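Sequence design from tokenized structure. All designs in this work follow the same two-part layout: the structure record, then the generated sequence. An example of the structure record is given first.
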């Protein structure tokens, strides 16, 4: 029986996900993917836009698209705070595909009115949603 820990994923609107039966978590940290297991040392770390993976004790893995945020680990509990996050099952894949196309279109043009950083961030969110939604 593997040691377990708790995870909460919070957005400004709601508790998106909460479980106390998590075996391991991997998160998109700035330095690369960060792994957390039970009894991890206390930690605070900034996250990129990407996919958070949670392996549960029933053998299932849940994927959550996150639009950046922060991870805090303490007392055998991980809290992920993000502006926007979606569970694998609730991701609208067609919407993410459209968002990706829009962002790519903006990045293809040399129009000075295009905010490239904003378009790149939108593209990263769309890619994270497609990955978490199983479409990439
Ligand atoms: P879009 O251009 O499709 O609106 P976006 O990246 O601009 O995408 P956000 O501003 O990051 O969208 O998110 C706005 C809200 O919509 C958030 O609550 C987010 O969780 C939700 N959301 C965005 N895209 C999707 C999607 N493909 N499936 C489900 N929820 C989504």
């Amino acid at each position: 029986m593997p040691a377990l820990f708790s995870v909460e994923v919070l957005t400004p609107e709601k508790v998106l996900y909460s479980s106390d039966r998590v075996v391991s978590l991997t998160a998109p940290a700035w330095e690369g993917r960060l792994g957390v297991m039970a009894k991890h040392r206390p930690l605070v770390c900034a996250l990129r836009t990407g996919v958070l993976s949670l392996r549960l004790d029933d053998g299932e893995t849940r994927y959550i698209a996150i639009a950046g945020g922060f991870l805090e680990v303490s007392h055998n509990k991980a809290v992920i705070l993000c502006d926007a996050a979606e569970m694998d099952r609730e991701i609208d894949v067609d919407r993410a595909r459209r968002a990706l196309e829009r962002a790519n279109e903006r990045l293809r043009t040399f129009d000075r009115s295009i905010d490239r950083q904003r378009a790149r961030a939108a593209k990263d969110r769309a890619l994270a949603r497609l990955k978490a939604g199983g479409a990439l």
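The radius of gyration is 16 Å. We note this feature because it recurs in several other targets discussed in the main text.
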